[in-house]
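Retry 2 of 3 after timeout on previous attempt. Resubmitting structure tokens to design endpoint.
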């Protein structure tokens, strides 16, 4: 299994709206994708006092490398495009790919 992890720090002012968007729109749409197994949306609990915003991790479990490549060619691009349209300048994100051992 491949785990695609996106860590996102969002401005405090939009954190609630962003979580609602993720849970209500993006993640349900993602679940319809081929090769998808499951997902989790997590909230970082040990925030640094000086940091701005709230940090979340979206973890998507995919069936294998082929599903990852399909995701990266479609849903990943869509995710970041939608994020830029809705929340440009109000978030910072990075992605990592992990393999279950």
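Retry 2 succeeded. Sequence:
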């Amino acid at each position: 299994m491949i785990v695609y992890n996106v860590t996102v720090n969002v401005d405090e002012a939009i954190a609630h709206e962003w979580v609602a968007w993720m849970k209500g729109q993006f993640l349900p749409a993602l679940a319809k994708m081929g090769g998808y197994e499951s997902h989790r949306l997590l909230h970082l609990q040990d925030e640094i006092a000086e940091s701005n915003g709230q940090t979340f991790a979206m973890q998507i479990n995919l069936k294998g490398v082929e599903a990852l490549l399909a995701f990266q060619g479609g849903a990943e691009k869509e995710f970041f495009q939608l994020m830029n349209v809705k929340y440009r300048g109000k978030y910072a994100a990075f992605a990592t790919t992990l393999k279950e051992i």
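Attempt log closed. The longest helix spans residues 15-30.
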